[in-house]
């Protein structure tokens, strides 16, 4: 809790005192719980110091600043988003293991951490997984892939893109800061008042949550505008809507959901801030406040958010299954319609998150039925993917394995979703581990598998070499197996009545299930560790796995029609599109890897420091708000506004790549393509694969006329 | 991707944008379209604040009610100020659009209309601030009740938007003198005019739902 400080110290440091540091707390009260807190804080601090030292030792600051931090290139921003997601995934998964350890060891015993710390654990785990892992991951993939797939040179608003990334990064930094300065909210990822109001949560925890989430939601809103504009306005000539790769469709629907679903989140977090900072009465117990307004608005964001998270993964699976089945996507039109139907329906079901909060049977029934309706378009998609594989030349590469595991696991999660969508049944299992099992059953296959599959699928495109397939399979086995071990016991426990977010357990009968779940969490962590090992091994052996020509698996979209990694300008000449699966048909009609008639100068945006400056300023402003250090808050609020204004005076914002340079780079790549040996798909996982896929005749291969 | 004159159909954007090429025209279309999308997102925020206001009407906990805080006369003047400012911004847009050659005379007229718009915006904000001060004097402060929180945030959010526009306008005028009517400035003027008219529409909703409702209660 906060001790009020006074006088000059308060003016300078607000509510910040020594007791905010976990080390001081651990020193004063050396319990295991506090020591774990101090250890986590130390990991952040030491990690940050080690990173700074390493970069300084390598002398890479200038390189990072000019090549990465100030870049407006959608590809580099996409990579940074995915990197951020990886860091945050690691933290949130460690927290998940701690949560599982706590429950498994706290059967009629205190366990490892005391209740306050446990509540922070599940709050940060949820907040990070949603706002700082899943969102950056999918935004990163969209950022990287969509402009390449639609034949564009960049996003519609490169500057906004950079600002969005740095706002998200600032939010993540606040999440990290809460480990080492102060504490985080104990109110769960949804931050329900009145518990998160001052009366019940007096510390800085909810303020950390409010400002970190606000930064993230602002960032996501800019992404929504950017992606929607890019897809609406910058498709290559001939790329009609019904010729777009399905990933673009799901990205477009996700973007539209972000545009309309992020405002409710911004509104609730800021109104909660109004309650906490200005004594207002939106969601308080007294003063006429009504927390149901919070519940409604939060889930008006929260349910569409589920589809913001899942739709991009659907897009990835569509691309992966089609590529590794060597078939065009079955039922493209129905997949498009299903995607749009899901996007629209997602706004009609938010009430199923609080069936038990007193709105009566008729309202509950209406929302229950609406919820089940979403199962129909989702089912259509599953059938489409199955029929895409049917009679295809299926290759069980790691991304394909993730896609198949997704289909099987996700359908089970859908069934338990139908149970929860039935209000009377929901009354039985709401707020139990059954619910926890259900949404992990949707989001781990439905988001995380998709993101990992997308990462593995497009990695060679982004970096020019393939990832190690063996470690990919090991990682897949851990994720797929670990998932069932970690979450199926929770269905049992939930049905047996074990409440979610329980710090101590009193029924010894739960013990075996909790042990299995803990083991599953460890297996999941091994899955993450294998991903890092895979990355390390792949970088180490990159010389043997180079795919510079850019099409390692005979894939179909325009993104595969350029070198790997693609040149900064993506396309030497903006392609004209005549078909769906544009690149595939060009390959079959011998139109791929041909020289352009004429090259032109290309204008690209210059690097810009405004993104990182705004991000840092906004982050510090929020830090000042959290600790009531008003001079920091106002100083950096002014700094971010002034940066925006100063940028608007800048006129010299582009630089020109001369046609000769574009031509030289293109010719070098084409010469490589003509010199390379096309690799048949049986050998595509060997070092013979240089990124030039051998033409494949599915009809002949099957003897079908 | 041929350069050269662009069909008149693309010259939709309110200002006469002398495009250099089709790429540039597409870029401008997208720049303006993106702002429309932002306004839609912003409109969702206002829709939610209106809904919240609607649920707050009875939550006065014995404090000031809508009927007691609403004063129709100043609200009417504020409405007149804001509507007039939209009109004057429209005149400025016409002045900017009409001119194939943007002469000094045209610039003076456009700048005149924009300055008038700016003055009206400031007058609006001044009256609104005065309203809030009067209300505070009567004990109608935002931490009094849910109703007053919702009232303050709904009208205050609109006011903050107007404040943003009022800060934005002189910045664009400065740029007009520094760079002339170049493309980024034209695009930003289009965006600002959209923003300004959007705030007008929101205000009309506020006038009808907050002030008129207060008057008939
Ligand atoms: Cu939902």
TrEMBL record, chain A:
<keyword id="KW-0349">Heme</keyword>
<feature type="transmembrane region" description="Helical">
    <location>
        <begin position="442"/>
        <end position="459"/>
    </location>
</feature>
<feature type="transmembrane region" description="Helical">
    <location>
        <begin position="363"/>
        <end position="380"/>
    </location>
</feature>
<feature type="transmembrane region" description="Helical">
    <location>
        <begin position="208"/>
        <end position="234"/>
    </location>
</feature>
<dbReference type="GO" id="GO:0015990">
    <property type="term" value="P:electron transport coupled proton transport"/>
</dbReference>
<dbReference type="GO" id="GO:0009060">
    <property type="term" value="P:aerobic respiration"/>
</dbReference>
<keyword id="KW-0813">Transport</keyword>
<keyword id="KW-0812">Transmembrane</keyword>
<protein>
    <submittedName>
        <fullName>Cytochrome ubiquinol oxidase subunit I</fullName>
    </submittedName>
</protein>
<keyword id="KW-0249">Electron transport</keyword>
<dbReference type="GO" id="GO:0022904">
    <property type="term" value="P:respiratory electron transport chain"/>
</dbReference>
<dbReference type="GO" id="GO:0020037">
    <property type="term" value="F:heme binding"/>
</dbReference>
<feature type="transmembrane region" description="Helical">
    <location>
        <begin position="471"/>
        <end position="493"/>
    </location>
</feature>
<dbReference type="GO" id="GO:0005886">
    <property type="term" value="C:plasma membrane"/>
</dbReference>
<dbReference type="GO" id="GO:0009486">
    <property type="term" value="F:cytochrome bo3 ubiquinol oxidase activity"/>
</dbReference>
<dbReference type="InterPro" id="IPR036927">
    <property type="entry name" value="Cyt_c_oxase-like_su1_sf"/>
</dbReference>
<feature type="transmembrane region" description="Helical">
    <location>
        <begin position="401"/>
        <end position="422"/>
    </location>
</feature>
<comment type="similarity">
    <text>Belongs to the heme-copper respiratory oxidase family.</text>
</comment>
<dbReference type="InterPro" id="IPR000883">
    <property type="entry name" value="Cyt_C_Oxase_1"/>
</dbReference>
<keyword id="KW-0408">Iron</keyword>
<feature type="transmembrane region" description="Helical">
    <location>
        <begin position="158"/>
        <end position="181"/>
    </location>
</feature>
<feature type="transmembrane region" description="Helical">
    <location>
        <begin position="246"/>
        <end position="274"/>
    </location>
</feature>
Automatic annotation (TrEMBL), chain B:
<keyword id="KW-1133">Transmembrane helix</keyword>
<feature type="domain" description="Heme-copper oxidase subunit III family profile">
    <location>
        <begin position="33"/>
        <end position="215"/>
    </location>
</feature>
<comment type="function">
    <text>Cytochrome bo(3) ubiquinol terminal oxidase is the component of the aerobic respiratory chain of E.coli that predominates when cells are grown at high aeration. Has proton pump activity across the membrane in addition to electron transfer, pumping 2 protons/electron.</text>
</comment>
<keyword id="KW-0614">Plasmid</keyword>
<dbReference type="InterPro" id="IPR000298">
    <property type="entry name" value="Cyt_c_oxidase-like_su3"/>
</dbReference>
<feature type="transmembrane region" description="Helical">
    <location>
        <begin position="110"/>
        <end position="127"/>
    </location>
</feature>
<feature type="transmembrane region" description="Helical">
    <location>
        <begin position="65"/>
        <end position="89"/>
    </location>
</feature>
<keyword id="KW-0812">Transmembrane</keyword>
<feature type="transmembrane region" description="Helical">
    <location>
        <begin position="32"/>
        <end position="53"/>
    </location>
</feature>
<comment type="similarity">
    <text>Belongs to the cytochrome c oxidase subunit 3 family.</text>
</comment>
<dbReference type="InterPro" id="IPR013833">
    <property type="entry name" value="Cyt_c_oxidase_su3_a-hlx"/>
</dbReference>
<dbReference type="GO" id="GO:0005886">
    <property type="term" value="C:plasma membrane"/>
</dbReference>
<dbReference type="InterPro" id="IPR035973">
    <property type="entry name" value="Cyt_c_oxidase_su3-like_sf"/>
</dbReference>
<dbReference type="InterPro" id="IPR024791">
    <property type="entry name" value="Cyt_c/ubiquinol_Oxase_su3"/>
</dbReference>
<feature type="transmembrane region" description="Helical">
    <location>
        <begin position="147"/>
        <end position="173"/>
    </location>
</feature>
<dbReference type="Pfam" id="PF00510">
    <property type="entry name" value="COX3"/>
</dbReference>
<comment type="subunit">
    <text>Heterooctamer of two A chains, two B chains, two C chains and two D chains.</text>
</comment>
<dbReference type="GO" id="GO:0004129">
    <property type="term" value="F:cytochrome-c oxidase activity"/>
</dbReference>
<keyword id="KW-1003">Cell membrane</keyword>
<keyword id="KW-0472">Membrane</keyword>
<protein>
    <recommendedName>
        <fullName>Cytochrome bo(3) ubiquinol oxidase subunit 3</fullName>
    </recommendedName>
</protein>
<dbReference type="GO" id="GO:0019646">
    <property type="term" value="P:aerobic electron transport chain"/>
</dbReference>
């Amino acid at each position: 809790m906060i001790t009020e400080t006074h006088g000059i110290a308060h003016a300078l440091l607000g509510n910040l005192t020594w007791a905010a540091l976990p080390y001081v707390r651990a020193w004063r009260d050396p319990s295991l719980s506090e020591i774990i807190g101090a250890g986590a804080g130390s990991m952040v601090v030491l990690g940050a110091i080690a990173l700074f030292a390493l970069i300084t030792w390598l002398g890479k600051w200038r390189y990072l600043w000019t090549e990465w931090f100030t870049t407006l290139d959608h590809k580099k921003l996409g990579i940074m988003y995915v990197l951020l997601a990886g860091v945050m995934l690691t933290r949130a998964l460690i927290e998940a293991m701690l949560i599982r350890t706590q429950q498994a060891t706290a059967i009629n015993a205190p366990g490892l951490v005391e209740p306050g710390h446990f509540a922070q654990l599940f709050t940060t785990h949820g907040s990070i997984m949603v706002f700082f892992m899943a969102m950056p991951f999918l935004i990163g993939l969209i950022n990287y892939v969509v402009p390449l797939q639609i034949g564009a040179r960049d996003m519609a608003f490169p500057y906004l893109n950079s600002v969005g990334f740095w706002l998200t990064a600032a939010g993540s930094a606040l999440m990290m800061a809460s480990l080492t300065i102060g504490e985080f909210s104990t109110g769960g990822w949804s931050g329900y008042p009145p518990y998160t109001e001052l009366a019940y949560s007096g510390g800085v925890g909810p303020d950390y949550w409010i400002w970190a989430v606000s930064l993230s939601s602002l960032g996501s809103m800019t992404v929504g505008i950017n992606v929607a504009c890019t897809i609406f306005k910058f498709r290559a000539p001939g790329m009609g809507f019904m010729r777009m790769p399905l990933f673009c469709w799901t990205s477009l629907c996700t973007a539209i959901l972000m545009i309309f679903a992020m405002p409710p989140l911004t509104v609730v977090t800021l109104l909660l801030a109004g309650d906490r900072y200005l004594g207002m009465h939106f969601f308080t117990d007294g003063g006429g406040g009504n927390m149901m307004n919070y519940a409604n608005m939060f889930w008006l964001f929260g349910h569409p958010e589920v589809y913001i998270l899942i739709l991009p993964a659907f897009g990835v699976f569509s691309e992966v299954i089609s590529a590794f089945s060597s078939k065009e996507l079955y039922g493209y039109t129905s997949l498009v319609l299903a995607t749009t139907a899901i996007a629209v329906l997602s706004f009609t079901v938010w009430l199923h998150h609080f069936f038990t909060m007193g709105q009566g049977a008729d309202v509950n029934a209406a929302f229950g039925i609406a919820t089940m309706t979403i199962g129909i378009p989702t089912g259509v998609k599953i059938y489409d993917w199955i029929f895409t594989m049917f009679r295809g030349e299926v290759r069980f590469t790691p991304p394909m394995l993730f896609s198949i595991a997704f289909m099987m696991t996700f359908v089970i999660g859908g069934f338990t979703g139908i149970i929860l969508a039935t209000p009377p049944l929901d009354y039985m299992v709401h707020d139990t581990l059954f619910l926890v099992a259900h949404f992990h059953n949707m989001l781990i296959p439905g988001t995380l598998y998709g993101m990992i599959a997308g990462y593995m699928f497009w990695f060679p495109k982004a970096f020019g070499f393939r990832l190690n397939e063996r470690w990919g399979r090991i990682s897949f086995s851990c994720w797929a197996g670990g998932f069932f071990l970690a979450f199926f016991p929770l269905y049992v426990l939930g049905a047996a009545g074990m409440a979610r977010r329980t710090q101590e357990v009193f029924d010894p009968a739960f013990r075996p299930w909790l042990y299995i779940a803990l083991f599953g969490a460890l297996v999941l962590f091994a899955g993450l560790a294998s991903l890092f090992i895979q990355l390390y091994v792949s970088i180490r052996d990159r010389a043997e796995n180079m795919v510079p020509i850019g099409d390692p698996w005979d894939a179909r979209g325009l993104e595969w029609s350029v070198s790997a990694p693609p040149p900064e300008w993506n396309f030497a000449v903006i392609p004209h599109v005549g078909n769906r699966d544009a690149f595939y048909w060009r390959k079959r009609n011998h139109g791929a890897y041909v020289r352009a008639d004429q090259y032109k100068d290309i204008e690209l945006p210059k690097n810009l420091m405004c993104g990182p400056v705004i991000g840092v300023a906004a982050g510090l402003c929020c830090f000042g708000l959290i600790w009531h250090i008003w001079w920091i808050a106002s100083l950096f609020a002014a700094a971010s506004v002034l940066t925006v204004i100063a940028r608007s005076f800048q006129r010299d914002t582009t630089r020109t790549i001369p046609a000769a340079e574009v031509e030289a780079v293109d010719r070098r790549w084409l010469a490589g393509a003509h010199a390379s040996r096309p690799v048949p798909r049986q050998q595509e996982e060997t070092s013979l694969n240089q990124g030039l896929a051998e033409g494949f005749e599915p009809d002949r291969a099957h003897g079908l006329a | 991707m041929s350069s050269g004159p662009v069909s008149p159909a693309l010259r939709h954007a309110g200002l006469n944008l002398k495009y250099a090429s089709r790429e540039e025209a597409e870029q401008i279309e997208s720049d303006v379209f993106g702002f429309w999308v932002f306004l839609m997102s912003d409109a969702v925020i206002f829709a939610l604040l209106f809904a919240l206001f609607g649920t707050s009407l009875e939550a006065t906990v014995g404090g000031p009610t809508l009927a007691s805080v609403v004063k129709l006369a100043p609200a009417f003047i504020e409405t007149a100020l804001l509507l007039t400012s939209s009109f004057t911004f429209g005149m400025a847009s016409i002045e900017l659009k009409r001119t194939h050659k943007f002469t000094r005379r045209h610039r003076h007229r456009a700048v005149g209309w924009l300055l008038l718009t700016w003055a009206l915006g400031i007058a609006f904000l001044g009256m609104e601030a005065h309203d809030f001060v009067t209300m505070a004097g009567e004990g109608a402060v935002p931490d009094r009740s849910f109703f007053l929180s919702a009232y303050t945030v709904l009208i205050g959010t609109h006011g903050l938007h107007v404040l943003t526009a009022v800060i934005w306008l002189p910045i664009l005028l400065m740029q007009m003198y520094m760079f002339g009517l170049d493309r980024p400035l034209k695009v930003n003027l289009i965006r600002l005019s959209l923003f300004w008219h959007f705030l007008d529409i929101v205000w009309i909703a506020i006038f009808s739902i907050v002030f008129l409702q207060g008057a008939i209660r």
